[in-house]
Amino acid sequence: MDSIFFNAYNTCDMKTQAGILSDDIEFFHDKGGLSTSKNEIIAATKKNICGKVTRTLIKGSIEVYPINKYGAVQIGYHKFFNNREPNAKSVPSKFIAIWKKEHEKWLMTKVISLH
């Protein structure tokens, strides 16, 4: 699901992103604070990310643990590249995602993004 979501993120496929984010999303960003509006998160991604930023997963960094009767927690490292500043250094940052399995569909319900 991570690769599906971030492929959509990197290609500005807002419909796929919206389909994976829970309506009850909680997005915690160490610099930006808490966002709980799915529509605002999608709009901000479209405005600030599309065509400007690319996310790359750090190979071998992903850990996934099941959460009984809920879904799973994912922990890993990724990098974000600013396409408008190709020479800028990208530093790996940690993220945590909580995934809920609901009616055979996986939804991202909580994200913690640390830079």
TrEMBL record:
Pfam family, one: DUF4440
SUPFAM superfamilies: NTF2-like
Superkingdom per UniProt: Bacteria
Record-linked InterPro entries: DUF4440 (IPR027843), NTF2-like_dom_sf (IPR032710)
Domain DUF4440: 4-108
Protein known as: Nuclear transport factor 2 family protein
